[in-house]
């Protein structure tokens, strides 16, 4: 029962992020830009409300997913304890916004990597990891560039420009958190599909 529920949750979370969370984030960013450009229209508080709502919603959804994921023990049964603890500490520290929540799913992701390696080989595992890592690195670089530009511009530029650059950095930070979450969902989803299909062949 747990595996189909997890697949349903992965699909639901992906569609929800694509259809609801990202449009709200874009709307929030647009309102923030308008507030910084215009002296008359001030929508900063509304923009911050939307961003904080996104973080809360994402946190609740991922907490629910990790809770259900903890019931599926076979994906993480062969994981070394020291490796899992080290990776969990790294994930909790370096992934913004949702690092602590995703840290609880580290055992499963490491277990999934070993299952994928056995099922589709090293090349297939590397391809899946590259699909996930490449956009994450791009977003991390963009986020760092916006924060760096705001720090460099602070002594010479208008305060509104500095705040605008900082706000764009915050937007990319949330996008990075969303992308890391979706990457974890992708790895777990692919592993579950392969595991279920192998089980079906075994029953035949």
Return the string of H and E elements. HHHHHH
What percentage of amino acids are in beta strands? Answer: under 5%
Poorly predicted regions are: 200-204
Rg, alpha carbons = 20 Å
Mean pLDDT: 76
Polypeptide structure, described:
The protein has about 200 residues and is mostly helical. It has one domain (about 1-204). Helix content is about 85%, strand content about 0%. It contains six helices and no strands. The relative contact order is 0.14.
Topology summary:
Elements: H1 2-37, H2 44-69, H3 81-94, H4 99-103, H5 106-153, H6 159-203
Helix pairs in contact: 1-2, 1-6, 2-6, 5-6
Please outline what is shown here.
The protein is an all-alpha fold. The protein contains six helices and no strands. Mean pLDDT is 76; it is low at 200-204.
List keywords for this structure.
mainly alpha; single chain; disordered C terminus; 204 residues; 6 helices; elongated
């Amino acid at each position: 029962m747990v595996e189909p529920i997890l697949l349903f949750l992965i699909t639901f979370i992906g569609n929800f992020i694509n259809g609801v969370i990202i449009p709200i984030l874009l709307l929030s960013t647009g309102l923030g830009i308008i507030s910084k450009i215009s002296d008359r229209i001030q929508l900063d508080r509304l923009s911050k409300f939307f961003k904080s709502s996104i973080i809360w919603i994402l946190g609740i959804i991922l907490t629910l997913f990790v809770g259900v994921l903890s019931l599926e023990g076979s994906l993480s049964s062969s994981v070394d304890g020291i490796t899992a603890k080290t990776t969990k500490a790294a994930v909790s520290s370096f992934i913004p916004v949702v690092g602590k929540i995703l840290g609880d799913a580290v055992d499963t992701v490491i277990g999934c990597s070993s299952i994928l390696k056995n099922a589709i080989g090293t090349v297939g595992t590397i391809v899946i990891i590259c699909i996930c890592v490449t956009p994450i690195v791009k977003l991390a670089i963009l986020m760092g560039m916006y924060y760096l530009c705001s720090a460099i511009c602070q002594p010479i530029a208008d305060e509104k420009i500095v705040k605008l650059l900082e706000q764009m950095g915050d937007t990319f930070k949330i996008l990075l958190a969303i992308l890391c979450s979706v990457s974890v969902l992708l790895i777990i989803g692919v592993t579950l599909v392969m595991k279920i299909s192998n089980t079906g062949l075994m029953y035949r």
